[in-house]
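Bug report (template v2)

What were you trying to do?
Predict the complex of my protein with copper (II) ion.

What happened?
Run completed; filing so the output is reviewed.

Input:
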Amino acid sequence: MKRLSVLAAGLLFSVAVLAGAADNVSVQDPYVRLAPPNAPATGAFMVIKNNGDKDVKVVKADNPMSKATELHTHLNEGGVMKMRPVAAIEIKAKGEAVLKPGGLHVMLIDLKAAMQEGDSVPITLTFDDGSSKQVDAKVVRPVPAPAPVQQKQH
Ligand SMILES: [Cu+2]
């Protein structure tokens, strides 16, 4: 009996060691912005949470709907917002990375076919330790940005 529990403890330990970054990561609200007809590319957005004690990086993203998938961010260059590829998206230990319009995003480039609202796009995120996680991102119609709130002057 005692020997068995020692063996069980050993097995649990092996499992814990084998677990990769993907096991500590959870993804919330993944979605793909519905591209206008004939648009060659669109973006995917989500909140990636790292529940682990170590920082992790997303180093690659993949999906079957586009010929290329890149990790992007937006940079303000001389007052113009431009998209730029990034090598990785870092998620601090116990932290989160927010991928949202105007910021970090997964770029789906060279769409193979037109998407429909409500479609589901499987996106695979690969982490710096080689582990990976697949999330199903719903295709949603972009909500028009709300008009800026004017402060009343008296
Ligand atoms: Cu982009």
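What did the reviewer find?
Residues 70 and 76 are 19 Å apart (CA to CA). The two ends are 80 Å apart (CA to CA).
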